[in-house]
Amino acid sequence: MSRAESPPKRDAKTENARPMATPTDQGAARKTGPDPRTGRGPSPLWTLGLFRDELVTTFRRWRTIALLGVLAAVPVLIGVAVKIETRGGSSAGGGGGEGPAFIAQITNNGLFLVFTGLAATLPFFLPMAIGVIAGDAIAGEANAGTLRYLLVAPAGRTRLLLTKYATTMTFCLVATLVVAVSAFAVGALLFPLGELTTISGTRIGFAEGLGRALLIALVVAASLTGVAALGLFVSTLTNSGIAAMATTVGLLITVQILDQIPQLHALQPYFFSHYWLSFADLMRDPVYWDGLVRDLGLQGLYVAVFGSAAWARFTTKDITA
Amino acid sequence: MAPYETDDSARAAEADDRLAGRRKAARYVVPVAVVGVAAATIGLVPALADSGDPDLPKISAQQLIEKIAKSDVQQLSGTVKISTDLGLPDLGGLESGLLSGAAEGHGDSSADPQSKLLELASGTHTLRVAADGPDRGKVSLLDNASEYSVIHNGKDVWGYDSKSNEVFHSTSPDSGHAGEGAGGKAPRDVPATPKDFADEALKSVDDTTSVTVDGTAHVAGRDAYKLVIKPRQSGTTVGAISIAVDAKTGLPLKFTLTPASGGAAVVDAGFTQVDFSRPAASTFAFTPPKGAKVTEGDDLKDAKGGESKDTKGDGPKRLEKEWRKGHEGTADAPGGPKTIGEGWNSIIVLETGGKGMPTGASGSTGNSDVDGFLNSLGDHVTGKFGSGTVFSTRLVNALITDDGKVYAGAVTKAALVKAANAAQ
Q1: Residue B56 domain flag
Q2: Last residue of a domain, one of B295, B321, B347
Q3: What's B218's domain CATH number?
Q4: Inter-chain contact B162–A201, Cβ cutoff 8 Å?
Q5: pTM greater than the 0.90 cutoff
Q6: Are residues B307 and B173 part of one domain?
Q7: Chain B contacts in chain A segment 220-239 (CB below 8 A)
Q8: β-strand partners of B243
Q9: Fewer C-beta neighbours within 10 Å, C or N terminus of chain B?
Q10: Is B271 part of the contact surface with chain A (CB cutoff 8 Å)?
Q11: Does the beta carbon of B170 lie under 8 angstroms from any beta carbon of chain A?
């Protein structure tokens, strides 16, 4: 689906590749859509088409590609830094256990770079990228004046919102996998691979380690769904894409700071970021599920609360742009 | 009548608006309802899970104590949660700085079990324990994205700190008496578990103590009896000790020490999950990971000399020793301690021979910052014995007189001053 993008300058290339559609083309551009004349509701296949169009639009944006590039660069930086630091045979992190989680183990096993990369990007880079995408989802369309055209097509607001949220979730997964794959590639290139020692001191084979790395990536992606829902809700509140992104990222930073203040410990279990690092519990043997269950439950709660709030807001608001 | 008509239609439109507005508002009920349901679930589920203490046959305190003594659990794995709240000032980073400094002085390995002990002295910690007979045991201290494990397997005792990727290793000559090694005591008999605490507490049972069975409870999904130990004397800071004992195996599952002053428990250690089947053999297998720094225990022992003997054991146990010093009179200080008083009110007296604490009132350190800091930690007291400073925690109080005597015990401040006066 091609439509006017916001901000237009950044997406000039995209638009060149796919000629910008005039508003009257909108219905026609959705080739997968049913014939509105039949008068029947859109088929599931059509929804899938809408979702696919959304995905293509999102991932073809330069800003999305730039965000993913930054995410992919973080493990590269960590890997190179650890390699340089340990060239003389000293251990990473100064031996005192400083730095991101798992950093001391990277030199023995490149697979640990996946965990370190995720641990380093999870507090800020990943949620910030999600905040940008989620905040832009509705407000960006409104800002560019394309939202009403989207609603002209027989999509329905609920369906459009769900599609937007599914796209954001997909971005969560893609962003996490980009970090993981980049980290794995760098780790395999710079450091040896093989059997690894879990943080409980037991040994697991490389295949199982790889499986756990994948599981960790999935858990990290799932941990971000709460921020995604929050961002989408903020996005329905305003017509300015920038305001929505700034609010989401601002909320993220605020919550992260509040999570560090000991006097607020009674509130902290309800912050969406509080259990984020519990993904590391998957590297214990046996796996310690308490934190993971709490993390995923909390994310589910955020999705339910802010998802339904976004729905309540979006289905009742006056679309003027 | 045009005006009326307009009025009517306006009213109709208004009603429409109101209806639409109500419909809009109705949608916001959904997120609010979700929040409500979540809050209710969070609030109610623990309350529901709590209700209904198990129905167990009556048992006397004596029988229950015997049950604990006879308990011989060889194989188990489980998760233990320990919360300690001694009311010590929160030193934050300073504390760990001091700890790492101390560790560096003695062999420079963060995997040395002793450098981990003090971590247990404050806050809430999750431990995982596993045991298979007397020769194989494992204790792991779970931390954020890292873990510290002590693994005892036959002759070998390993300490592994995953955060710094450092390994501590010592061998015990006799696997049956692993307590010889610096870290050996820890994994031998399911340490830091409620059982350790219970053993210590039961030693104190004498005529100054009342022991009762106080109903039953569910602990870690198992039926348990609750044993309550209360000092009969006044003047002690110990309020009550409650031990939940597994009805089937006799293993203490939960230990709670509440201070006489009330409030949160000083020590609260309990299983949150326990399994009495044999743990997988791989649990106890440990090979140092490639590239990990391995410190041999013998080096440490040399560096520490005789000191390591006194400090062996796990953190909470040492805490226990602190406040129970009076009962046992362990000789681990210069000059040899004396004990005055009996039972829970016993006070240990140390003759340091030094000048005592440099306090603001007397014997200034010459550094006003240091004086201020020390004064903020302790209270200045005077009495027939002269003057001194009382350092208090929620359990142990210590009086350091200006002439270098130390009175310490799980007793109130007034009792300490009285003891000091009497000793003059």
Answers
A1: no
A2: B321
A3: 2.50.20.10
A4: yes
A5: no
A6: yes
A7: none
A8: B227, B255
A9: N
A10: no
A11: no
Give how far B70 is from chain A: nearest CA, Å. 30
Residues in a beta bridge with B75: B132
Looking at residues A216-237, what average pLDDT do you find?
A: 94
In a domain, B248, yes or no: yes
Residue B390 lies in a domain: yes
Tokens representing residue A213 in the block: 């790395």
pLDDT tier for residue A258 given thresholds of 50, 70 and 90: very high
Whether residue B316 is preceded by a cis peptide bond, meaning omega within 30 degrees of 0, is no
Total domains, chain B: 3
Q: Flag whether B83 is in a domain.
A: yes
Contacts of B110 in chain A (CB under 8 A): 95-97
CA B327/CA B315 separation, integer angstroms: 19
* Same-domain check for residues B296 and B378: no
Residue B150: name the closest of B165, B133, B128 by CA: B128
Q: What's the pLDDT at B110? A: 62
CB-based contact (8 Å) between A277 and chain B? Answer: yes
Are B5 and B42 part of one and the same domain?
Answer: yes
A267 interface with B at CB cutoff 8 Å: no
Q: Write out the H or E segment, with its range, that includes residue A83.
A: helix A62-85
A40 vs A291: CA distance, rounded Å: 47
DSSP 8-state code for residue A160: H
The CA-based angle B36-B40-B45, given to 5 degrees, is 155
* Residue with token string 């431990």: B127
Across the interface, do B292 and A316 touch by the CB < 8 Å criterion?
no
Q: Is B379 in the same domain as B281?
A: no
B5 three-state secondary structure: helix
Size of interface A-B (CB pairs under 8 A): 107
Contact criterion met (CB < 8 Å) for B165 and A108: yes
- With a CB cutoff of 8 Å and minimum separation 6, the contacts of B29 are none
Nearest chain A Cα distance for residue B317, angstroms: 23
- Please report how many Cα atoms fall inside a 13 Å half-sphere around the Cα of residue B285, on the Cβ side: 9
Closest Cα partner for A81 from A67, A98, A66? A98
- Tell me if residue A281 falls in helix, strand or coil: helix
B345-403: per-residue pLDDT in tens? 788 887 766 554 444 444 444 555 555 666 666 778 887 777 888 888 788 888 888 87
Of A93, A104, A200, the CB nearest to B149: A200
Predicted pLDDT at B88: 64
Amino acid at B194: P
What three-state secondary structure class fits B407?
strand
- Yes or no, beta carbons of B162 and A199 under 8 Å apart: yes
- Domain residues for the domain of B253 are 61-321
Residue with tokens 């990536």: A217
pLDDT of residue A26: 41
Question: In angstroms, rounded to a whole number, what is the distance separating the alpha carbons of residues A233 and B218?
Answer: 43
Distance of CA A61 to the CA centre of its chain: 15
Instruction: Identify the residue whose tokens are 């995923």.
Output: A296
Residue with tokens 């200034």: B364
What's the full length of chain B, in residues? 424
Helix axes A112-121, A206-223, angle to 10 degrees: 10
Same domain, B23 and B102: no
Q: What is the CA radius of gyration of chain A?
A: 22
- Please give the Cα distance from A217 to B76 (Å, whole number): 32
Last residue of a domain, one of B321, B351, B373: B321
Considering the domain architecture, whether residues B274 and B399 belong to the same structural domain is answered as no
Structure tokens at B405: 């005597």
Domain map (residue ranges) of chain A: 42-316
Residues B78 and B218 in one domain: yes
The conformation of residue B293, written as its DSSP 8-state character, comes to E
Burial of B45 (0-12, 13-18, 19+ CB in 10 A): exposed
Question: What is the Cα–Cα distance from B392 to A231, expressed in whole angstroms?
Answer: 49
Strands B293-296 and B166-171: parallel
Enter the ipTM: 0.71
Q: Which residue has the tokens 């043997």?
A: A285
Q: What is the pLDDT of residue B355?
A: 53
